[in-house]
Known about the structure:
- This protein is α/β, with parallel strands linked by helices.
- The chain has one domain: Rossmann fold, CATH 3.40.50.
- The protein contains eight helices and five strands; from the N terminus they run E-H-E-H-H-E-H-H-E-H-H-E-H.
- The longest helix is centred in the middle third of the chain and has 24 residues, at 68-91.
- It is globular, with a radius of gyration of 17 Å.
Amino acid sequence: MASEPRKRGAFIVLEGLDRSGKTTQVKLLEQRFIEAGRPAKTMRFPDRSTVIGKMIDGYLKSDVEVEDHVIHLLFSANRWEAAHSIERLLNEGTTIVCDRYYHSGIVYSYAKSNPSMPLSWLTAPESGLPRPDAVLFLDLTPEEARARGGWGNEIYEKEEMQKKVGEAFRQLGGVVDGGEIERDEDVVVVDAGGSVEDVSEKIWSVVAGALNAVERGEKGGVRTVP
């Protein structure tokens, strides 16, 4: 009897403002998968362990200055470094839980309001990357994020930048109408202002739907960013 084809893993991304609880929720989600007997792996972008990642780390910590176009392309290149590994893991049946991905790269650069970096230019380097099955934006006001401690240590952890990023993600998630950014069907906005447990359950309600869609084959093989 022929064995059943191996079902691919799901690709889940958590986005959010700094200090929104992403790292905690990524770990909880991975643990939930493992306890359910589902192979899972966490990833995080930027990956600061690579050569490109170390350059990005220096920029984020304000150790070096990098021109806006250059740093945007470095962030994208950092994701492309992992593209093959992401595809391989998903095809092997491993579910990936990712702390930030290409939506952050686009939105944070967009929030700089650099007129020589239109959205069409910002999105172009991401075309062809593995596409997530679900993207959850953990929505938190900059004031709430700052109150959680450790806020303001890196270059993007400034209130005005965080406000612009939050507004852009809400446009992606369809919570806010208008603006230059179009709705992205992959993005779901989740209120991250509650307890860790409450937020975890909100996340799971979205993720469970994405998992079911993948298992039913509704999303086919590993998708790519258009």
